[in-house]
Amino acid sequence: MDHFLYRDGALFAEDVPISEIAAAVGTPFYVYSSATLLRHFKLFDDALDGTDHLVCYAMKAASNQAILKTLAQAGAGMDVVSGGEYMRAKAAGVPGDKIVFSGVGKTADEIRTALTGGIRQFNVESEPEMDVINAVALELGVIAPITVRVNPDVDAKTHAKIATGKSENKFGIPISRASEVYALAASLPGLKVIGIDVHIGSQLTELEPFELAYNKVAELTERLRSEGHDIRRLDLGGGLGIPYTRSNDAPPLPVEYGAMIKKTLGHLGCEIEIEPGRLIAGNAGLMVSKVIYVKSGEDREFLILDGAMNDLIRPAMYEAHHDIVAVQEPAPGVEQKPYDIVGPVCESGDTFAKERSMPPLSAGDLIAFRSAGAYGAVMSSEYNTRPLIPEVLVHGDQFAVIRERPSFDEMINRDTIPSWL
Predict the structure, then answer these.
(1) Are strands 144-151 and 121-124 parallel, antiparallel or unpaired?
(2) What average pLDDT does range 200-208 have in this prediction?
(3) Where in the chain do CATH 3.20.20.10 domains reside?
(4) What pTM was estimated for this model as a whole?
(5) CA distance 51 to 271
(6) Which of 29, 122, 219, 333 has the most crowded CB, counting CB atoms within 10 A?
(7) Among 3.30.70.141, 3.10.180.10, 3.20.20.10, 2.60.120.10, what is the CATH number of 103-274?
C-alpha cells in the first residue's frame, strides 16, 4: 500500500495534488510520502514484536536527511556503507549507538570517524579490514564492537547485480572459514565480537533463500558459542522485495518474513537486527516527469520526457520495470495505446519502457513513475550537464522541497580552470 491515489481524476500524494507540486517546483522531481515511509517501517517493527530487535534503515536506498529524520523519530536505526552516509545519518540526528557500518571497503579514515562519533557495530567483511579496525581502535584507545559478515553461499534468486550471498560475490567471508576468522577476531585487543552478520541480496521475492541462509546462521551461532564466543546479536541484512507491478505476484509480506525469522532463530535468545531499505522507501516515492514531445517513428510512437536516465537509472542499469501512470486519471474505458517512453539523453539506453500501454498523451502532460523512492534520487547524476532534480517530502496536506534543483551556474562554477589555460 502507498499514499499515491487518484481523487476526482487527479493523482495525489497524501492530501497534496501532484500537479500542485509540479507547478511549484517544476519537472522532473521526486516526491515522497511520509505516511508511506512510516507505515512500511512499522510493518517491519511490528513483524519482530516480541523479540529484542532493531530495524536499521538501509539508507543507501534513499538518504535525504528529511527521510532519515522521519524514520529516526519513529525509532529506526541506520545502516550505512560509507563515511559520507555515516556523517549524513549523524547530521539527521541519529545517535551513533543506532548506526551500523556495513560495506567491503571501509577506509581507516571512515573507521576513525565512526569510532570517534560513536557506532553500534562494524559489520566486518575480511581479515585485512579487521586488522585495520583493530589498529585504529588501539590508536584511539577504544574497543570497536564488530560482527563478522559470513557468506552462506545461498542463491538469492534475484538480479545478478544485486545478489550478494553466493560464493563468487565479493561480500563477507566464506561461512566454512568462520571459526578461524572469529578466533582471529577474539585475539585482537581492539575488537569486541558481539555477533554475526549475513546479507544475501536485494529485491528477493520469496522467503526460501532467507530461510536457507538463516538456518546456516543458527548452526554457526551454536558452533561459535561452543568455541567460546559471546554471540548475542544477529544482523540479518535486508533484501525483501517490493511489488514493482500491480500484479498479484507480490513478494512476501514483512509479517511473513518476521515469522520466518522467529522460527529459524528465535530459540537462540539473540538480539535481531534487520536492514530493510527498498521496502521502506521504494513505494514511498514517485518520479514525476513531463511529456516534451510525442514523436511518430516508423512503426511506433515515442513519449519524449524531460526526465532521463541520469534522473532514474534503474531501467537502463537493471532493465528494471516501473509502473508509469498519467497524473491526470484517464476517463473510464479510454483506449490505451503503446508508446516507447524515453528521455532526452543522447543514448539509446535512455529508454524507460518499450511498447508500454498508456492513455493518449500530449506535450505538457504529467506522468509519474511508481515505486521510484528507492535507488532513484541517490543514484542520479548530472550526466549531460543536467541538474539533479528536486526532492519533495509530503506530510498530510503539506509539502516541502528537501533538495533544491541546482542552477546551471552552480553546476558549472564547481569546475576550476588551471592557471595555464
Answers:
(1) parallel
(2) 85
(3) 103-274
(4) 0.93
(5) 7
(6) 122
(7) 3.20.20.10
CB 379 within 8 A of CB 311: no
CA–CA gap between residue 384 and residue 224 (Å, rounded) = 53
* CATH code 2.40.37.10 for 4-31+282-412: yes
Query: In the numeric block, which cell numbers belong to residue 269?
Result: 535468545
pLDDT for res 165: 42
> What per-residue confidence (pLDDT) applies to 166?
45
Question: Half-sphere exposure of 145 toward its Cβ, with a 13 Å CA cutoff?
Answer: 20
Amino acid at 77: G
Mean of pLDDT over the chain: 93
Q: How far apart are CA 289 and CA 292, in angstroms?
A: 9
Where does the chain hold its CATH 2.40.37.10 domain(s)? 4-31+282-412
* pLDDT tens column, 24-70: 999 999 999 999 999 999 999 999 999 999 999 999 999 999 999 99
Quick one: pLDDT at residue 248? 53
Around Cβ 153, how many Cβ atoms within 10 Å? Answer: 18
Three-state helix/strand/coil letters over the chain:
CCCEEEECCEEEECCEEHHHHHHHHCCCEEEEEHHHHHHHHHHHHHHCCCCCEEEEEECCCCCCHHHHHHHHCCCCEEEECCHHHHHHHHHCCCCHHHEEECCCCCCHHHHHHHHHHCCCEEEECCHHHHHHHHHHHHHHCCCEEEEEEEECCCCCCCCHHHECCCCCCCCCEEHHHHHHHHHHHHHCCCEEEEEEECCCECCECCCHHHHHHHHHHHHHHHHHHHCCCCCCEEECCCCECCCCCCCCCCCCCHHHHHHHHHHHHHHHCCEEEECCCHHHHHHHEEEEEEEEEEEECCCCEEEEECCCCCCCCHHHHHCCCCCEEECECCCCCCCCEEEEEECCCCCCCCEEEEEEEECCCCCCCEEEECCCCCCCHHHCCCHHHCCCCCEEEEECCEEEEEECCCCHHHHHCCCCCCCCC
pLDDT digits (tens, 9 = 90+) for 264-322: 999 999 999 999 999 999 999 999 999 999 999 888 899 999 999 999 999 999 999 99
Counting beta carbons within 10 angstroms of the beta carbon of residue 8, is it exposed (0 to 12), middle (13 to 18) or buried (19 or more)?
A: exposed
